[in-house]
Design a protein that fits this description.
single chain, 11 helices
């Protein structure tokens, strides 16, 4: 419970924690942010790491002058793209063996099933759409690798999705994060970003439950 409380504190007070990291570690904070975005995208066991809210707050810190947007955006786009590719090749080379051996508590089967259903519906464009959907963006490249999606096509969608995701959210934070009404209610904004990003998955879950009950 203490770990959960600490995690929620980090998520809900992301602005204060990220600003403290910037003040404490200086330019090394770029490496920390790179590692978080890479892990949230590239490791199927860490879908819980902050993504959308982290990018918005990082963009807001760029607006304050604590970080440099011209360094941050390309670096995090590279992190997202690299994470995608790592996840794809893990899925392609050892995906099925990993699923058979890894503890189910680390890789939840329902997350894979939801991502597979999303992939079946939207095809290769899933790699782009998934960028804006927590959990699904972590599993989409893994599922693409397991399904042997053509790598050339995957790279194209991954590059487009990575640039669109990083640019849109960091620019949103840069442009709006320091407006007084937003800055004074940043915790509510973070919660709103999390809720909005999770809403499609929640709606899909409700729809799936209703269809199962009808069946």
């Amino acid at each position: 419970m203490d770990l959960l409380t600490a995690f929620l504190d980090i998520i809900l007070n992301l602005d204060a924690h990220l600003l403290a990291l910037t003040q404490q570690y200086g330019v090394w904070v770029y490496a920390i942010l790179f590692l978080i975005i890479y892990s949230e995208t590239g490791l199927v066991i860490t879908p819980f790491l902050p993504g959308d809210s982290l990018l918005f707050v990082a963009g807001a810190l760029c607006g304050m002058g604590a970080l440099q947007l011209e360094w941050l955006a390309p670096l995090l786009a590279l992190a997202a793209f690299s994470g995608d590719n790592t996840n794809y090749w893990v899925g392609r080379l050892v995906g099925m063996r990993l699923l058979n051996r890894v503890d189910a508590r680390l890789i939840r089967r329902e997350h894979l099933d939801k991502t597979h259903a999303f992939y079946e519906k939207h095809g290769g464009k899933t790699i782009i759409f998934a960028r804006f959907l927590p959990i699904i963006r972590t599993f989409a490249p893994f599922v693409a690798g397991v399904g042997m999606m053509r790598y050339r096509l995957f790279v194209l969608f991954s590059a487009l999705g990575s640039v669109a995701w990083i640019t849109s959210l960091t620019m949103a934070g840069y442009l709006f994060g320091n407006i007084p009404v937003v800055k004074n209610n940043l915790t509510l904004i973070i919660v709103g970003i999390i809720v909005i990003s999770l809403l499609p998955a929640l709606l899909e879950f409700v729809r799936h439950r209703k269809s199962n009950q009808s069946a």
